[in-house]
Amino acid sequence: MNKTPKTKVAVFDFDGTIYKGDALIDFYLFTLNKYPAKILWGPYHAIVYLLYKLNLIPAATAKQQILLAIRNIPIKTLQTYVEEFWKLHEKNLMKDALTEIKKLKRQGYKVVIATASLDYYMLPIYKKTGADELICTKIGVIDGKITNIIDGENCENQAKADMVKQRFGDVAMAFSDELRDLPLLELADEKFLVNLDKKVSGHENVYWQ
User: How many domains does the chain have?
Assistant: First the structure.
């Protein structure tokens, strides 16, 4: 009996790989324009961000602290903000990344975005990239309002690799701009570092705009 060929999977990080910049920070700043009083969180969040960059607090902790500024927004209101946000920021999707996704889909690959970015703003945009599936960080909702609490794992580093492996096993290709995604890249037969000058054995460097 002939077996159905296994689907080839190509996994892309999002921030810095498909999207120019950090979508969480961009959405945070966008939200501050909606609620100017929340700018009072700014100095505290600057300290949180610095502690994260110095590796003094985990990324999940930093993310949950930053989300304090947008918790308790009703989901329906948030969805409206997300639509407005992407109308302004969809231009930050890198054309070369979108071209690569289209090429791989023509070649029969299932394209997956695996990102630490958050579900509420990733769900509307990932399909516009041409991707087939999304693996991301999920944020809790209580009484129809967003919380600042991560529901499950923060989808980064080893946790991201574990989520992808649990869903697909090993994959054909993986793309990321972050060395912290090396656990994810190690799942792939072909490994690509995006817009990084650093060379890593067994990884190909690509440069996208």
Answer: 1
